[in-house]
Amino acid sequence: MKRLVLAAALLMGAAVLSAQPPTIGEFFDRFTTEWVRQNPNQAVTARFFSGAEQQALDRQLTPQTDEWARRRRELARRGLAELARYDFSRLNTMDRRSGELMRWQLQIIVDGEPYDDYAFPFEQFGGVNVNLVSAFTVGQPLRSDQDAENYLARLQQVSTRIDESIAVARRVAAKKLVPPRFILNLTISQMQQFIGSPPATNPLVTTVADKLALITTMPAARREELRARAERIVADQVYPAWRRAIAFLQPLVPTVNDDAGLWRLPGGAEAYAYNLRRYTTTDLTPDQIHEIGLQQVARIEGEMDVLLRQIGRTQGSIQDRIAQLKKDLAYPLTEEGRAAIMTETNRILQDAERRAATLFDHRPATPVIARAYPKFQEANAAGSYSAPAPDGSRPGVFQIPLRPERMTKFGLRTLVYHETVPGHHFQIALEMENSDEPRFRRIRALGGIPAVTEGWGLYAERLAAESGWYDGDVEGRLGQLDGELFRARRLVVDTGIHARHWTRQQAIDYGIEASEVERYVVYPGQACAYMLGQLKWLELRDKAKAALGDRFSFKEYHNAVLEIGTLPLPMLDREVTAYIQSRR
Description:
The chain has helices at residues 2-19, 24-37, 40-46, 51-57, 66-83, 93-111, 128-137, 145-155, 158-174, 181-194, 203-212, 220-249, 268-280, 286-310, 318-328, 335-355, 412-419, 424-433, 439-442, 450-466, 474-499, 504-509, 514-522, 529-548, 554-564, 569-583, and strands spanning 368-372, 384-386, 396-400. By secondary structure, it is mainly alpha-helical. Strands 1-3-2 form a 3-stranded mixed β-sheet, with helices on one face. It is globular, with a radius of gyration of 25 Å. The protein starts with a helix and ends with a helix.
């Protein structure tokens, strides 16, 4: 009898043990693996798997269907339910931070379900027509014969993904959730330009030719065979898919007007509030953000006026004087001019890496390179940074659009500092290389947090100015202030468009170039992340300086905040406050 009781007790104990959740680190690994496995594009970019599984995913393109989006959200809900099993107060610091971050990110994904259809599949800035191309030209490795075969296998799926997107767009259009007329026209024009040149010169083909040319061990005949296959796929499949999408979009144009903001759509105010919370991680209202923008614009314009007068530019508004300065510092609109601005970009980048040594102990091992956007994207793209591949197969990539408005030395230094060193590259690549963080954080599997990431980029711009990087260069310092003014105006314009019924022209007249205004129309709320994030980064640093006094060190502070990693602003505030208290 005693043996039976003992056996029963042992069985019960085993059942209790089996019911215990895995460690939260094990959960992070398992959930992230499932999350990335569902998204081949992410697996390709992150080089997440190895061996046969990675090879299989390297040959796939992420579906663009409603069903795929539904399964994605189901997985997010399941992740939240599993996270609820853990007592965060009993976890170590890194696990607690990571658990709170994952919970916040998954909740944002779940909360976004009612607003999925407010993001139209085709648009000029981040639509499927843009992102599919970037998946090949930026994200896909091409270092071997097998990589080339994988590239071609994915390329054959592009037409299917475009057709899936047309089906989603048709359903959304039936609900009258269509972009403004000027956005449709821009998108159609961009797509026509993409297919307007011979397939041999299309970026999807030239990427193959350019990257295979670096594989010196591959016979020239084999390189040409692979290039020719890419050209045939683009001619026979990709171009016809683009034409089908254009044919779908064109009849929509006369059905809409040029009203730009989310306010024009049913439930638009709620959709905008969600996007502001998603991108800024705050609960600030559109009116509050608008007022912050107005205050910052007034402050920055006052500083700029003083510097403009120092260099003899006294006539006209700030906007007019800066516009003339940009023209005076412009590069020729020629291939030689394009080459010259890229040469200067690389010089600035190398100089920034040298200067950053006085402010940062920890610096990425992974390099960053600069290159121009493909010409078909120039008219609508913004300067951007793409993270390096964790396996070292791809460096960090800074892309710059060489359209006429950007072909100037004015503001170039500031753009480089924001996107590379000590901006995005330092923050994102260092986090990717931080082996103490769970992998979902290192590869940003659940997405980034623009208020922290873009706020850091803008903080980096200010840090360079405060550290004397512009000494003796008043025009360069004006470029930095103009970058800050641009972000302050964004607060005013984004909220103006989506909550105050501003027109596209009103936003342009306020001092924002047309392509940027058009970006805010299709990307509501994101533009508010920059300035709000920077203000928080500056607030936290100044709080640390005030509390620590002579013990404050830029290197130590930067080490600490970059080690904390990407978190929503309220969580970042709490963690930096804890750091300050520990140092006191």
